[in-house]
Amino acid sequence: MIALNHFLCRTKTAFGTQALTHLPFDLSGMNARKPFVITDQAARDAGVHLALARACRDTHLALGVVTLTEAGDLETLYHLFVDKGYDSIIALGTGQVVQTAKALNLAVCHGPERLRSPAGPGQIKGPLLPLVYIPTHPETGQDTAGETFFSGHCFVSANLMPDIAVITADTMLGTPRTAVLDSGLSSLATCCETFAFSGNLFARSYAHAVICLVMDTLLPLAQQSDHGELLCQKAGKLQQLPLAKLAHAAAVSGYIQSNLPDLKTRQAGAHITAIHPAPSAALSSGLCMALALVHLLENSKDTCPWLGKLLLPLTDAAHYAGVTGPEQPDASVRVIRELLHALSETLPQGMPKTLDAAGLTSRQISEMSDLLTYVQP
Amino acid sequence: MVIPDYYEFSSRALIMAGHDALEQIPGLLLSMDAQKPMVITDQGVRRAGLVDILLQALDSRITVKTIQDDVPADSDLKTVHTLAGEYKKYGCNAIIALGGGSVMDTAKGVNILVSASSDNLLAFSGANALTHTLNPLVAVPTTAGTGSEVTRVAVISDTDNLRKLLFTSDFLIPDAAILDPRMTLTLPAPVTAATAMDALSHAVEACLCLGRNPLSTAHAHEAIALISHNLLPVIRQPDHKPGRLALATGAALAGMAFSNSMVGMVHTLGHAAGSVCHAAHGACMAVLLPYGMVYNLHKTQPLLADLLLPMAGADVYARTQPADRAQKAIDWVDRMNQRLHQATAGAHAVCLREIKSQDGKSRVTGHLLPKIAHTALGDGSIFYNPEDLDYDDCLMVLEAAFDGAPLDPSRVKKG
Questions:
Q1: Which domains does chain A have, with CATH numbers?
Q2: Which of A20, B192, B281, B325 could form a disulfide with A55 if both were Cys (CB 3.0 to 4.6 A apart)?
Q3: What ipTM did this prediction achieve?
Q4: Nearest CA to CA, how far is B253 from chain A (Å)?
């Protein structure tokens, strides 16, 4: 155990079929009566906002719903929010919807001028208004992390984490297979690195749960998903629950990212995406992270404290205990490689399973060796 | 992985765990604009010198306005009201709770009153009666057991009306939990044993009971591994700082787990025994834990079997036939109690009749068992137990646990 471990997760996770119906009760517990719902066109077209409205019918809540494309820029949202006296924010969607909701929260509580310059940890003091996050797709953990990007600036604060993440099959929209893979592999890489290298037992406990969720869900979901699935329609019945589980994994991986901002796989993913000549859609950030993870684990077998134990969440107790201690590190890496291979089979064009196959030159790989090797502190 | 149809998981305390974690408190209080804390503790903690260690860790930026060390063993309404008055009198703007479960619960009660500017704690009892953030509260546990430093619950006695008031709200979760091994180094072996078994019971019930979910189970398994691997070494070498930190971390993880999954019959019966006989909570948990596991065995066999891995390690797990793993996990807890009994020269009780008061008298007597069973039926945790329990079931388990006799499987209902 290292000298000092910190862990903070401000977000309550509510998962399952009744999660939306519990929301009015939770909002009431935060003294929120007039939530401002921000959503996007896809969620609106699929009628997801109606499920939220139904859950809030006959309660004390007075919802206002805006769709990002019609509401325009943040200034418009800000004036709407202040003029109409809203007291809380519900981000119904992912990505830009959530980043906008976080920025709006900052603007309302600290003044719009707060958004003109970036803010690092500790610079945003005081609580923000209640923020509820209801994803419509599995994403990559950014939505629940304590940070937001707005107008080229980054704002970091644990207070930016949502108060509640409501994750339910009812709000899941159809998600293309590539997006499913991006989310699942991003969560897997974040949490495998956390579990294998971090001495932070609180982060490792969350990571354990995420790895189990991804290993249960990702491959079957990738096999079922349609490559060209429409984003503006509700997910098919069979996909809804696995998508929600993957969104759950992504949300929790965001909690971990907030606490362990220096994860090598995330940095490597961003680096590879930046230097790679192919369009980012062809080589998602999640896939880059997973490929970096394999390198990282392979390069660090002798220094990685818990690589052998990683086999436990990657498989199950019986499998883990059946492999002898010295063989467990190799077995852990093998399970991840096999998963990548099986996922590749689900794509008509396949996908690269190593950084070399992804088109990175030996020089590019060696230049990022510090991101692909763990050095024991 | 089986996921329930619906579940929630929330653990909002900032956790700082480490060998010099206390030294983080000044920066933490400053970040919350809370430079004028009140310290709430008890006389035992003060006599052990822990208040002095805390004060040395605070620097000149922090002004401790008052130190209140009159918290009784069972947190009560009068103490809460008195301390709330002191908080206002000294112009405090934060609380540092330094102690075990009673100190934590008292501090949570005081924080309700001073944050709401109220003098009626009863108005906030029950579930989710709080609707606003409370003043800053930093929890520094001096035992590794209750997990109260990370939970959303406070239990405060209303001694005038002979009842215990339950308060539950996410706002009751302390802003920060500081886990520093210096705070538990002087704990006597029997207290170390009983509080660690309390934490173990939180973790085991979090895995078995009806509110379990993937996040609570992951936290509970990590807690079980930490407690299992470190408890006996710490009993043998009390000043082993890494072991102490591991136990404190295990207790916090177990607290995060059970706070989100709830607990079952081990706590149902333990709460009742504590209420009727004033028996130490940790001692009751240690004795009752294997009985709860046996009682629920037929409904939780695969879950119990999974516990053998964090308890006994991969080698034992692999060597044990799958069908025998659940029973082996129960045997492991039994054996842990026996080894703690030996390591503490008999001070760690292995049956209810062995739980003693400080003057050496038995706390739990045979004629009180029916009253304990009756009281247990009113405990909320009974609803989360995998198997149903009625009065006769409670009495049957208590009678067996009283003498340390095995539970007769043929008398356990198989609902």
A1: 12-171 (3.40.50.1970), 178-246+264-371 (1.20.1090.10)
A2: A20
A3: 0.95
A4: 7
